[in-house]
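Mods, move this if it's the wrong board.
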Amino acid sequence: MLDYIIKVLLFQTLFLVVYDILLKRETFFQWNRVYLISTSILSYIIPVLKFEKAQEILPQEYIILPEVLFYPTSVIEQKVAQSSMLFSSLTLIFWIGFSIAVILFSLKLYKLLRLIFDSEKQKKSSYWLVFVEQKNAFSFFRYIFLNKTILKATKEQVIEHELVHVEQKHSLDLLLFEIQRMVCWFNPYGYIYQHRISELHEFIADAKAIKQKDKTTYFEGLLTQTFGVNHISFINPFFKHSLIKKRIFMLNKNKSKQLLKLKYLLLIPILVGMLVYTSCEQSEATQLNKNEKRKITLHYGKKDKGKYKVIQSKKEGYFDIYMGVLPNGKEISYSSLSDEEKEDFDKIKNFGSEDDRKYYSFKVYEMKDGKKVILHTVDWGNMKKSWKSKDYSNAEVVPFASVDKAPVFPDCVDVSDPKKCFQEKIQTHVSQNFDTTIANGLGLDSDYKKIYVQFIIDKNGMITNIKSRAPHEDLEKEAIRIIKNLPKIQAGEYNGKKVAVKYTLPITFKVE
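Not the wrong board. Structure tokens:
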């Protein structure tokens, strides 16, 4: 957010400098009106736009600039992030300022509406005349406010002037900037923009009204009247002493030559430069947040089904692993990885048996903070089909899913579904004997953890080749201990012969 605010201020500074130096003194009033409104809005939009093509077109040496020059807010954000109290204080200050701005605006609007309802009004064809006691003349949307005792000649002049504000809906412009001032009350350029557009409105109205009246008479009206105008930022006052001199100067100024409209073309390279800046900034952010070796985090499950889990591993690597959930990052190619990252990626990719790897797919993503992760997907449907269709007649070990007759747990001899009974008995054995209190003293985060245990039930029904993978070595040892304590099991069968069966058991528990 701090980075966004700094960009808005930077862009508005540039837009206002261009306006004050090149455009302000020209008589292209309507063009200037469009310029002020559009650039004030674009300043808030451009910082969130990023075009990846800009990074591809520009050579890398032009993108990677020193941090202090290209990405000045990173250091500030790091300092602010170190103090949650400071962040909370800034948030509180923002809402206090916003609340005050809204209250002040509401009071001004209430005062104006009361003036409309309580004063004498006269309906005209396209506007309302509101007669007020104060010696001020101004307009707000279709309402023109006048002192009832105003001279007839001056009255006509004021109405002609204020009708231009009404017809061109200048009040909408002022309300737009008033909203910007309320939301971004801390932005000084919001006040400058509103002052510029208010000033421009008077030039537009004068230029239009002067066509209907002698210029000398119009000057005399401006100089002889001394109406005092209450300060309400979203109305169009006719007499404002600080503007009289400028209005007379612009009325006497010769019309600008049409060729000078080419000045507005300068806006094109400025916008292109801003878009390139915001688009290429991500490259610098990536350099500041390099993908370093760290403890691997496993993300798995389905967020939409409420089964999403995160496990912090004790093992280190260059990639976090995502299974069943899509990373919130940008997919990148294998060739863009460093040699160390490629080596780590290859190890992960070659995990598991050669037959199963045919159903694995791996994609690399780069996250917004520069870290890289791997999306690991498994084609479970076809993998299970291959297990069932594969001929294990000459295999030393057969997967549990592929055996014709599953290993039989002691209490599952006479059941109709030995496979289901076997799995239920294994789960019961683990839940009753696993010491979950071990995890509480290992410094693990409070969350659900998962252990994977793989073992073989040989032809004699004995448990062998026990392997375990867990967030901590002590948990792996406990999982192995539990499996070793399983009772003797009847061997499984494949094609009528007893075979060794490989079984994988996931164990999930919660660390308090």
